[in-house]
Design brief:
- The chain has 4 helices and 6 strands, in the order ββββββαααα.
- By secondary structure, the protein is α+β, with helices and mostly antiparallel strands.
- It has 2 domains: 70 residues, no CATH class; 68 residues, no CATH class.
- Strands 3-4-5-6 form a 4-stranded antiparallel β-sheet. The protein has a two-stranded antiparallel ribbon with strand order 1-2.
- A hairpin with a 3-residue loop joins strand 4 and strand 5.
- It is globular.
- The two termini are 18 Å apart.
Length: 189
């Protein structure tokens, strides 16, 4: 599939950023040394928003397979929680211990099947009409987010960096994969 700017009726001189992959860290005692990898873009392979927490491996592996446990928090389109654990496959172990990833899954669509699911902005629009600011971001939060984003954009500009093209329907440009692979990690596609 071709990049978006090669499609008909698209301004292919545009240098608007439609994708970003970032490794970020929080500079405080609690999160020191914990990397946060963020990736977002338009027209990617799948539309989803989720947070994946990969737990550190223990210093001594009981079994030879070095898989890790993960907590997946699905925000959309299918809200829910999933805890992926490595478990020993039941049996007599005559051919060695076999491990398998077992998902413990709480899909909110199933858990609350008796309720009608709301479309993307239905709840926010209703809250707006009723004057309930609970789910809205405060002004100071928005300003701080833009201050951070503007700093990143300014650094890219100062370094002479330009957006890299990527094919519509892909997971982004190759640089996004290089970013995370340098830390011996991988995106969870």
């Amino acid at each position: 599939m071709q990049a978006y700017y090669f499609e008909n009726d698209v301004d292919n001189d545009s240098d608007t950023e439609t994708f970003v992959a970032v490794k970020a860290e929080i500079d405080n005692w609690r999160w020191a040394g914990v990397p946060f990898y963020l990736r977002t873009g338009k027209r990617m392979a799948r539309k989803r928003s989720e947070i994946i927490i990969t737990f550190k491996q223990v210093p001594h592996m009981l079994f030879t397979k070095g898989e890790v446990n993960r907590l997946v928090i699905r925000l959309q389109p299918d809200e829910g929680l999933q805890l992926n654990l490595m478990a020993k496959t039941p049996g007599l172990d005559r051919h060695g211990i076999r491990l398998r990833e077992i998902p413990l899954d709480l899909g909110l669509a199933n858990a609350f099947s008796e309720y009608r699911r709301r479309i993307a902005y239905e709840r926010l629009l209703l809250d707006l009409i009723e004057g309930d600011p609970t789910l809205f971001v405060r002004r100071d939060e928005v300003e701080e987010a833009w201050r951070w984003i503007d700093g990143v954009a300014d650094a890219w500009k100062d370094a002479g960096m330009a957006p890299k093209p990527y094919a519509a329907g892909s997971w982004g440009p190759s640089g996004a994969f290089a970013l995370i692979e340098r830390s011996e990690r991988a995106w969870m596609d």
